[in-house]
């Protein structure tokens, strides 16, 4: 069995179960995530280790704040590649990150819907 994309219980506990705050945090991540992923893809394609390190670090932190260990860990792998300047295996690491981010986004959308239902506000 694979690790869940996000530790829902830890995230809910962190934010005191406030559905509005949880939904806001999810929306922020979903908005920023595409920018991070675009920058990371471009950095890998260009071999730009400095940008890779910076953008992967930002995504790692954003995913970590959501208690999304698999995505955070995948971003950390790319961050470390950028830091060391060794991009051996970067394409495979990027594939892993993309898979984890896709899983995370699906899970976050479901959690956001549950939060909206709990708050009685469906957009």
Task: Assign the CATH superfamily.
Answer: HPT domain
- Summed up, the helix count is 5
Mean of pLDDT: 92
Largest sheet: none
SSE-based structural type: mainly alpha
Cα-based radius of gyration, to the nearest Å: 15 Å
> Which regions are unreliable across 5 or more consecutive residues at pLDDT < 50?
none
Description of the molecule:
With 123 residues, this protein is mainly alpha-helical. The protein has a single domain, classed as HPT domain (Four Helix Bundle (Hemerythrin (Met), subunit A), Up-down Bundle). The protein is built from five helices and no strands. α2 (19-46) runs antiparallel to α5 (90-119) and α4 (69-84) runs antiparallel to α5 (90-119). It is elongated, with a radius of gyration of 15 Å. The mean pLDDT is 92.
Give the helix/strand layout:
Elements: H1 8-14, H2 19-46, H3 49-65, H4 69-84, H5 90-119
Short description:
By secondary structure, the chain is mostly helical.
Keywords:
Four Helix Bundle (Hemerythrin (Met), subunit A), single chain, 123 residues, elongated, 80% helix, 0% strand
């Amino acid at each position: 069995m694979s690790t869940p994309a996000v530790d829902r219980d830890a995230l809910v506990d962190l934010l005191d179960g406030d559905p509005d705050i949880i939904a806001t945090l999810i929306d922020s991540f979903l908005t920023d995530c595409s920018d991070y992923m675009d920058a990371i893809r471009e950095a890998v394609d260009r071999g730009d280790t400095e940008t890779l390190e910076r953008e992967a670090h930002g995504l790692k932190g954003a995913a970590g704040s959501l208690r999304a260990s698999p995505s955070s860990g995948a971003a950390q792998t790319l961050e470390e590649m950028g830091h060391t300047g060794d991009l051996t295996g970067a394409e495979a690491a990027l594939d892993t990150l993309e898979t984890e981010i896709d899983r995370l986004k699906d899970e976050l959308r479901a959690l956001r819907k549950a939060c909206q239902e709990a708050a009685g506000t469906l957009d």
